[in-house]
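Checked the freezer inventory, then went back to the computational side. Two predictions to log before the end of the day. The first one is the construct we discussed on Monday; recording sequence and C-alpha cells without edits.
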Amino acid sequence: MTAATNARPDTFEMVFVHNAFRQQFGAMPGLIRGVADGDRDRASVVVGFFTEMTRSLHHHHEAEDDLMWPLLLQRAPMDSALILRMEEQHERIAELYRCAERSAVTFAERADPVSREQWAANLDELIDALTEHLHDEEVEVLPLVEKVLTVPEWEALGERGRAGIPKDRLLVFLGFLLQANTPEHGRDFLGRMPAPARLAWAVLGRRSFRKEYRRIYGVDPS
C-alpha cells in the first residue's frame, strides 16, 4: 500500500468549526437581552445574525446527514447505536432552532420584554442541546471517522459545508472561525488554505470581519 492509501482523515477542521458554533450561539442570549425595549432596528440586526448562523448550522448538519452518517453506519455497524443517537440529536436541534426562529420573528416585530425573554429562553435550550451534540461528536464520532472514512470522503464533507455559505460571506465567516479558536490553531487553519484565500483574508477579510463584528457586538473583536 502507498502512503496515500494509508492516509487517514484529519478531523481538525471539524473541531475548528464547532468552536465557532459554540461561541456564536453561546453569545446570542446576551445579545438578545441587550436589545432595548422597542428598538426594532437593533432587534433586526440580532435576528439577522441568528438566522445566518442557524442556516449555517443547518447546512453543516445536512452535510453530515447525507455524507457521513450513511458511511459510518455501513462501515462501523457495531457503532450503529452511536450514529443513530447522533441523528436523533440532529433532529432535536432542528426542532429547537425552528422554534427559536418563530420566536425571533415575533421579537423582530415587537422588541418587547415578553418576546425577548421567550426567544432567549428558546436559545438557552438550543444551546444546551447543541453543546451536548458537539461534545459527543468530537469525543465519540471523530475518532471513528479517522478509522473508517477515506481522505476524499472527509474532504467532500468539508466542501459540502463550505458550499452552504454565500460567497460574499465567506471571509466574514472565516473571521468568526479564527476568532473562536486559539491564534496557534488559527495560523494552522490559514496555512492549510490556498494562497489566494490567505491573500484575500489579509487584504479584505480582516477589515470586513471587524466591521461586521462591530455591527453585531458593538465592540471590536478581541
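The second is the one RB wanted added to the comparison set:
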Amino acid sequence: MDYMKIDSALVKKFREDRSWSQEHLPTVAGLSLRTIQRVESEGSASLDTGMAVASAFGVIPVALSARNSEAH
C-alpha cells in the first residue's frame, strides 16, 4: 500500500477553520475516527485516506502534503 506524508497541523487547521470536531471529519470523509486521529497525530496516511480527507476539505491531495507545506 502506498502512503503519503500529510501535514497534520494543516489537517487540524482545516478542520478547526470549519468548526468541525474530530468526530465530524470522519463522517464527512467516510473514514473512521481512529484514522483521522492517526492522520492528525502521525501525519501519515494511505493514498486513499489522503484523497478522502482532501475531498472532505475540497482541496487536492497535494495541498495536504507535508512536502508541499515545507516548500512554503
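For RB: The longest strand covers residues 3-5. Strands lie at 3-5, 44-46. Let me know if you want it refolded.
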